[in-house]
Design goal:
Length: 395
Amino acid sequence: MQTDTDLEKIAVSSRKRLTREFAEKYTNLQERSRRIPISDVKQIAEDFSCPLQIAMISYLVNLDGIISLKEAILYLMTELNRRASVGVEVPNIPGNIMEFALLEGRWLVYVYGTFIRDFEFKMRELANLEGAIDETNISLEKAIHVNASRTKLAEGYLAPVVEAWIKDHPNSNSENALMFLGPAITKWKIATLKGRVLHLRRRCQALFRVLRKAMDGPSESATIDVSLKRIDQLIQDLDSELNSMPIRALSHLLLHIAPKPTGRGDKSSFVEVGAGSTRGGKSEPDMVSPFDFLERDVYLAKRRTKEERMNYLTERIDRVVRVLLYQGTPLINCVMMCVKEMNERLKIANPPLEELEDKFEQKLNDLPSDQRNALAVELIYDYINEYVYEETKVD
């Protein structure tokens, strides 16, 4: 069972790691923002009626596959408007808006990237512990173990993030932090979270009452007495208004609403090395390159109708092409890299690639430069459609 000193050491370590990661992500976004195709960003700013600087950072966040372009812009604009509503408006000057976008962009990249990955990994041990609980007959040892594990994760890992977010956002409160971190953790929309939060608070309190009952027996342990007092205070704090809920209570609430990982197959340490990915509750291999994601999406698209498949897959192909272009790859090379990768991964019996490359290059050269990216996506989709789904032919 952790003492306050132990928890503080864990929290300090989390804060240091957070500070280091934020510095790296800020610098990364700042450097990359200088290389963004300005024509693309202007179009995004026009389409979404947002400042150019917001469009730039949203473009990068989306390019990394963190969240969609629309979601990134919505978050940044919501926070921009929130600050104006509480009297700390960001001056409508390009430099100020860019600084705001960079600072908020690092939060998006961190929370939807590193934070969620680490959190899901840390949740597994707790999920295994709680999965073995019989709430009608929980032993003292198990209750102590579960309480200690929840406290370590909530107060040692989540609380520093909540604290940093509130500190980083002028005139913000616990409810604002919940509405940012909650959807990232649960994958719910904000409206869904708001509708469920009261019920979830009650469930969280109920769990702690079960733990308290199991620990509240004859004992001369001062440590258990301290834990019981902390649980009593936590149950009381969870009744607070959302906008004034103590950070400690909010951290436990965030932990409670997090979906529990569901593993599959053999749990032996000799079978699984490291942590497998769980996306949507399904086990998948870790994916690194854009082609890993494209291969997955090609398989997933098979389940859809023809029209849905086209919309779904062209959006994914477009993202891959944008990533490759951002890396400095010529457009025709982007097309051929996608074709070659799919050939190898999906075992496609393809026509001679030299002839195909000449044909594709000619088609691209026949169009104005501002229309070539869209054609590149179309060419890749048509190729996959013919050789994977066998529905249409590449002209």
